[in-house]
Amino acid sequence: MVRLGIDATSVAPEGKGIARVQRRTVEALAALGRHELVVFARHPEELTGAVQVTDRPALRWEQLGLQRVFREHDLDALLTWTERLPLRGGGRYVVWLFEPPTHRIRRNRLVGAGAYQRASDLVTLALWKRSLRRAALVLTGSNATRDAIRDVAPRAWTLYPGLDASFSPGAGSRDGRYVLHIASNDPRDDTETALAAFAEVRRRVGAGIGLLVAGGRRVEGEGVVSLGRVSDAELVDLYRGASAYLDCSLYEGFGYQVLEAMACGAPVVATHVTSIPEIVGDAGLLCEPRSPQGIADALVRVLSDEALAADLRRRGADRAARFTWERTASDLANAVDKLVAS
Question: What is the DSSP letter of 160?
Answer without folding.
Answer: -
